[in-house]
Amino acid sequence: MIRAFANPHRFMALSRWLAPACLGVGALLMVWSVWQGLWVVPQDDYQGGDIMRAMFVHVPSAWLAMASYMGLAATSLIWFVWRHELADMAAKSIAPLGAAYTAMCLATGSIWGKPTWGTWWLWDDARMMSVLVMFFLFLGYMALRAAMETRQKAARAGAILAMVGAVNVPLIKFSVDIWSSIHQDASVLRLDGPAMPPVYLTPLLIGGLAHMIFFAGLTMMLMRAEVWGRRGDVLIARKLSGS
Amino acid sequence: MTAQSPLRAAFRQALGEAWAGGAGVLLPIGFFAGAAMLVPFTVGSESSQLSSIGTGILWVALALASLVSMERVFQADLEDGVLELWAQEETPLFLVAAAKIIAHWLVSGLPLVLLTPPIGIALQVDPGALVPAMLAYGLGGLAFFLWGGVAGALAASVARGGLLISLLALPLFVPTAIFGALATIEGPGGPSLLFLGATTLFALSIAPFAASAALRLAVD
Question: Which residue of A179, A229, B135, B180 could cross-link B140, Cys pair, CB 3.0 to 4.6 Å?
């Protein structure tokens, strides 16, 4: 299956319409979920009144931050094992998007935390620490790629770092979990079903889906730009050698 | 095979570098002591405050000092071509990488551990707790050097990669720093020392392979 997706021509033909479609559908769903969150759902005094409406951006961005690191590790592994160039392009494209979503998760979390917990930032909260460490992993990945001389070296070094980071993430998560935490427990993904009333849950899940689709569209757009960039390099090289 | 196996050569060379130009062994010590010395000036000199944060300051200073000379560890081998020879030897490259990192820890990491009691006493930490804490500083320092070695190998072909190494390695220090700080507070009987040892073993089982993959990339 990976082979079928690894063909750049097929990817370009597919993403030509799929990328804008994802961006459009994702944006529409995102607008709906934010509209629901800001104006329709009743406020929840237990979570700090109106400020809990930040959830409809905060929670999807947290999901996407985690998913993008997993995506970075998976595409890096695929590239490292099979050397499919598209996997490397995907990893390169995911990194800045993942960093942006991680930053968004931290920012909205701080804005939510200030009125409810009375503080912008808590060092002894496990989840905040994990996300912060992940943010630095993304930054390190991008800095390493940027520092490498050639595209091939950037791909290899990035893949090694992403995989080393990925095996460390569970350990980091476990070690910061040892600390006491005031962050509320998971309330959507639980074995005994979600602990959230459906009036909140539906817009939240649609919001998560929206960000996921939007993220896929953005990744494909960046990958398309990368393919075009490489084609441009080839054209320049041909022209220089021909003249 | 040559008279000297690459493992021994790498080990001896890393030990020798400690005394070569640039005062390799003194640099981390100076940095370690200097960083710890700045703390009372910034947080205040009250004994009670210093004694409660003293062991943590030593952890931060140790983590930072472990990265000071990491830039040169593999870069020098890449520049003089010896890395290329090692990559072609029968001895697996991950063993060479491990030998190099451990030798580097012996000359630049272990002296810092030996230095923790005097600096700790100066920071008003209970002297009785400092000698058992040396085991934790030793274990944690080894993990810092292993992850730093991976970052150093990745940045071997990068000119002026010192800051890049810090950015790559510091997030990987988090578990060791957490369990290390807990272990020095709990003392040798607590579970955190075992967790700290586990993070070091984890680093020992992964870092040499990652470092050797990165060194192959630097050689190509």
Answer: B180
